[in-house]
Amino acid sequence: MNEATNSKTTAQPAAQPTSVDEQLSPPTENTSQYKVKLEVFEGPLDLLLFLIKKEEVSIYDIPIARITEQYLVYLKAMQELDIGVAGEFLVMAATLIQIKSHMLLPRDPTIPEEELDDPRKELMYQLLEHQKFKAAANMLYQRATIEAGTFSRADLDADKINPEISATVYQLFEVFREVLNRKKAITEIEIAREEQTMAEKIVEIKTLLKQSKEVRARDVFERAHTRRECVVIFLAILELVKELAIRLQQSETFGDIVIVEREEPDSSQSEI
Amino acid sequence: MTIEELKPIIEALVFVSEEPIPIKQITSLLEGENIDDIKTACDELTQEFNARNSGLEMRLLAGGYRISTRPELNEYVRRYLKAQPTARLSLAALETLAVIAYKQPITIPEILEIRGKSSTSAIKTLLDRRLIVPRGHKPVVGRPMLYGTSKEFLIQFGLNDVSELPSLEDFEDLVTN
Amino acid sequence: MTIEELKPIIEALVFVSEEPIPIKQITSLLEGENIDDIKTACDELTQEFNARNSGLEMRLLAGGYRISTRPELNEYVRRYLKAQPTARLSLAALETLAVIAYKQPITIPEILEIRGKSSTSAIKTLLDRRLIVPRGHKPVVGRPMLYGTSKEFLIQFGLNDVSELPSLEDFEDLVTN
């Protein structure tokens, strides 16, 4: 699911630190609200925790058949509401079904009870861990809210003498990437400029005419990045006219000039 | 110098410093002074600031001292500065940050495993906001990048050190109750 | 509000204000409060600041209130400003440093080619801050000087080794998202 869409639910600053969990209220009958609430389940573990809470069951003893059924209902609702369902949700669905079928299998009577591995164990640990981090995220949220309420002194003249930025390794990397991109852009422009020969322009115009029967001369000129290129295009068109490869049409005075591939002479329209 | 003489100097230095100023830097600026005296002066100054009915507070943050306005007054200050509160982190970014804060240094696949979902855009946000930093490569196959929290993280979350974070086990009690 | 309640708010406002803040502006921010009370609070605050053995002072300056360091402490403040941490760099210097870090050892003409900009003053800054060091001469015509990053660079950026620098592949997923 797109994480950016989730930000709108937390984008509003709260006057008092509130719990991020409050957003995880059950969906209501109102469809648009339903959609917003569903978007909050940004991962399959969130949806599972919500269902466990809603069904008032214990993480330590999940009624897997019931929860799986509910999970699939929500998954279907999400798909119907056209919320992009990320692959993780489908993986979890498969896991749940697998656990469910595993639990339906008859037990091997030769294995003592305490050695039987509960197929739900791994999921239980994952959920507990996930819940701990959700609580930690909530703590961070509250801390950040309080901290954002403190302000440091205004800029001093001394700061302005030293208008520099501090950096981390990531900034160093980002800056390097930007330098490389900048260089690439410059190189591309230079290459383009050097290679604008008339022969290539002729090929380009012919290719355009293959794609569509008519091409507006204006469009061809607008492909030029420099004045020099405009001149080359102009020469290329003249050359093509001379070769009788194309025809230029103008249906009205000052109207658009249209380039047409020449098949046979046609005198019904004025030619330039 | 006596502690009473050191205090105003330290106060001025903390005020001027744009970032929280580490005690080590204060010490190097006050060369020749007794380090224990400097520490005592810092402690006393912090206490005095906070005991006073003041609009300001002095705190130890990200390993350094800082003077700032009190959070209770944020409404007035914001009104004056017409300060837009910085965009809040999304739930995804906060959860990812929590995982990184507690499990650092950690790789992206390890984060994915804990969160049960892809976290790349959250990680990009956290990197752009300088809350996390790359911490070299993990010496395993593929040498994946390790991530940890930054100094900016400590400042924005009001911590002197990551060890000040409540332990993850504390949340377990909260969760199971 | 009582005068005692007004004082911390005013103190916080004066503290964050870039220019001396006029009493008129304080009054308009505290709409509904008694103007005389605000004036009294400002006066008392100023007096308290100056009566205290503080490194800071509050003054009425150009028709507004301002908090600043005491002139007697100028020497220490100047000492601090001179010793600003070396990790703070201009964008030009940062770009040059990034190019050197990733392409080292590298000559000045090669840096110019990659950055597309003259980098001599940035290189001087980086040398002054000991973030880069000369690494001998390139065995070509003119024998230009080669540059590489220093040990100081590793310390500043929290790296063990330059091989720990994040690579393009490390962030490919993040960047494309």
Verbal overview:
The complex is a heterotrimer, with one copy of chain A (272 residues) and two copies of chain B (177 residues). Chain A is mostly helical and 272 residues long. Chain A contains eleven helices and four strands; from the N terminus they run αααααααβααβααββ. Chain A has helices at 3-10, 31-39, 44-54, 64-80, 87-104, 121-147, 157-161, 169-194, 198-211, 217-222, 227-242; strands at 165-166, 214-216, 246-250, 257-261. Chain A has a three-stranded antiparallel β-sheet with strand order 2-4-3. The longest helix of chain A has 27 residues, at 121-147. Chain A is elongated and about 95 Å long. Chain B has 177 residues and is an alpha+beta fold. Chain B has two domains: 3-76, Orthogonal Bundle (Arc Repressor Mutant, subunit A); 91-176, Winged helix-like DNA-binding domain superfamily/Winged helix DNA-binding domain (Arc Repressor Mutant, subunit A, Orthogonal Bundle). Chain B has nine helices and six strands, in the order αβααββααβααββαα. Chain B has helices at 3-16, 23-29, 35-51, 74-81, 91-103, 108-115, 120-128, 151-156, 168-176, and strands at residues 21-22, 56-61, 64-69, 106-107, 132-137, 145-149. In chain B, the strands form two sheets. Chain B has a three-stranded antiparallel β-sheet. In chain B, α1 packs across α3 and α5 (91-103) packs across α7. The longest helix of chain B is centred in the first third of the chain and has 17 residues, at 35-51. At the A-B interface, α1, α6 and α8 of A face β3, α4, α5, α7 and α9 of B.
As residue ranges, the low-confidence spans of chain A are 1-36, 265-272
Strand content of chain A: 5-15%
N/C terminus separation of chain A = 58 Å
Mean pLDDT of chain B: 90
Strand content of chain B: 15-25%
What is the subunit arrangement here? Answer: heterotrimer
Radius of gyration of chain B: 20 Å
Strand order of the largest sheet of chain A: 2-4-3
